[in-house]
Amino acid sequence: MNSFIFKTADIKSAREIKSSLKPKPEIFSDIFPDGELKSVAVSASFSLGADGLLAEISVSATLDLQCSRCLKKVEISVQDSFEEFYENPPEEINIENPVREALAMMYPQKPVCLEGCDETFLKKYSAPEERENGVFSELKKINFKKKEK
Q1: What values do phi and psi take at 106, rounded to 5?
Q2: Using an 8 Å Cβ cutoff, are 48 and 11 in contact?
């Protein structure tokens, strides 16, 4: 049985259901090609209202990534909360895809060490300041103004 599936009849009879899930990280391994998902925790709260069913979902995860500055391994924790509203809920509500989408959106584009990232890499590989004798310095000597006859 998929732990991400909740029966609407159970939610309607209880009026509210809360659930905490600890899915295997391997389920979402395809989302993180450049890193490893170490842990995932999902909490979901379903409540029935007059207009439909509301799912309040919170996702937290720990990722092992590579720092984009110094290339060292860095562990990053991410979390997000969101809501899903079902006006006409189906018999079963599967929250796996919304959780998958939330995890994909939380993936950092440029992971960096939070503390202690080697500053020498920043100095060494940052864009150099404009030099007077750079490779394009000769272009400054060209006169582009049109000569009058």
Answers
A1: -85, -10
A2: yes
Q: For residue 133, what is the DSSP state?
A: T
Model pTM score: 0.73
Residue with tokens 């509203």: 85
Expressed in percent and rounded to 5, the helix, strand and coil fractions of the chain are 25, 35, 40
Residue type at 114? L
Distance CA 16, CA 42 (A): 17
**Residue labelled with tokens 């290339």:** 71
User: pLDDT per residue over 112-137, tens digit each?
Assistant: 886 667 666 666 766 666 666 677 77
